[in-house]
Design brief:
Layout: H1 2-34, H2 47-54, H3 73-89, H4 102-108, H5 116-128, H6 136-153, H7 158-173, H8 180-193, H9 201-223, H10 235-241, H11 246-254, H12 259-269
Helix pairs in contact: 1-5, 1-6, 1-7, 1-9, 3-5, 5-6, 6-7, 7-8, 7-9, 8-9, 11-12
Length: 272
């Protein structure tokens, strides 16, 4: 049990840093070629300008509004698509002919470790080039692949291998949700719906919880010293709840990671 806890914590720590690198790569790359680091575009000098930017209400002043931009942006997206096509043809990348989605991988509780790097690389390039896709599949594949690899190296049985794969996925999904507990609940609910609940249920809950918590902590501990920026809840949300007492709202958000701090600070600024 002690070994399992240590391995889960190591998986979580590694995936926390992996998510930081992955997010920073495509976030910095896309903002660089879009010109978001130019003066007056971002980072934002005040919260009002940030909210206007996030809500797309800059009235054509921002670098990514409809009808603005540069002609060579098309070449960036075309070049990224060409590069991804070439990467998929390289044999040692082992890119799958038909990639599985996150839900399929959770259903099977198996990820081919050698396919994970190629999927992560192509996903990172796609996001950096502006593709409208999410990071969940790539990070889930990487975490699940690492979990499967660790299980094979430790010569674990089938049930333990399933648990190790799910732990890796939890480590990957930890930074993507407001609180690690949501990751644990989501993955175990998907397993139950898929008809394959973990045999050692409580042990798996513990290992996935440890992995998700460690990755969440690493990610948010170091996120502020990287290129990543904390997203602000739009002001429109507070317009809806401005007549509601803030105490229960803060309690609700406090149970979901850092949301309580955000709600309290914004609620005070709006005089709630």
């Amino acid at each position: 049990m002690t070994t399992g806890v240590a391995v889960a914590a190591l998986q979580g720590g590694f995936m926390g840093f992996a998510c930081l690198g992955f997010f920073n790569f495509f976030d910095w790359s896309s903002k660089t070629w879009l010109g978001c680091w130019e003066e007056g575009a971002g980072p934002w000098p005040d919260s009002k300008q940030q909210n206007e930017y996030l809500l797309g209400m800059q009235n054509g002043k921002g670098p990514v509004m409809l009808g603005t931009g540069h002609w060579w942006w098309i070449l960036v997206t075309m070049g990224a698509g060409l590069l991804i096509g070439i990467i998929k043809l390289v044999k040692f990348v082992h890119f799958p002919i038909k990639p599985k989605g996150l839900f399929s991988e959770v259903k099977e509780l198996h990820v081919e470790p050698r396919e994970a790097p190629g999927i992560v690389l192509c996903s990172a390039i796609s996001l950096a080039a502006g593709a409208s896709v999410g990071p969940e599949m790539a990070m889930g594949c990487l975490g699940g692949g690492i979990g499967t690899f660790i299980a094979h190296e430790r010569n674990l049985g089938q049930d333990e291998t399933y648990s190790s794969t799910l732990t890796g996925m939890a480590a990957a999904m930890g930074p993507l949700l407001p609180t690690p507990m949501l990751t644990v609940l989501l993955l175990h609910e998907l397993c139950v719906v898929a008809g394959r609940p973990p045999k050692h249920y409580m042990e798996t809950v513990c290992s996935t919880g440890i992995a998700a918590t460690c990755s969440w902590f690493v990610y948010f501990f170091f996120a502020d010293v990287t290129f990543l920026e904390s997203a602000a809840i739009p002001v429109a949300f507070y317009d809806i709840v401005k007549n509601v007492r803030p105490d229960p709202m803060c309690a609700l958000f406090r149970a979901n990671g850092r949301g309580g701090e955000v709600t309290q600070s914004r609620g005070g600024a709006l005089g709630l």
